[in-house]
Structure prediction request, 174 residues.
Amino acid sequence: LPENTRILVLIESATGLEAAPEIARADGTFRLVFGSGDYRRDTGVGDSPLALTYPRSRLVIASRAARLVGPIDGPSLTDDPATLTQEAELTRSMGMTGKLCMTPERAAYANAALSPSPDDVTWAHEVIDRLGEDGSRVQDGSDLPRLAKAKKITRLARAFGIKNNRRGNGGNGR
Prediction:
């Protein structure tokens, strides 16, 4: 591969999951991706959220420890809008930052669930305004994680083109 090629690494077996920390730190690794279907076939675990909590968490931790962006979750296997939304919200709650989609139509549900809401963006701007972009007005240890979260939300908002509720868009920021 050409130098500096960014690689999305699909983790889809018990062996891959056990090697995830090393894989995440390997040169060229850009993101980890959970191949949930093949993982389930390899391990025999069910498809319930509880059964897949460990592999999702392990990929999130391996990604964070390697200073990668959060991993991409496996795809939903339905076209039902409520289920697509619920599964994408689960993805977000697990700390994953992307979701594979089997069809282009499913991407809208994943994007909506994984992107910050206009209220999230408003909160983030208020925190940054209060603490300073550079953290110069931080008052205690709890302010630093809040500032980091606010900065992350504003980066995501820019990527998704989301505005906040307080800056004159009438609360209709998406």
Notes: Residues 167-174 have pLDDT under 50 and may be disordered. The longest strand covers residues 29-34. Residues 37 and 69 are 22 Å apart (CA to CA).
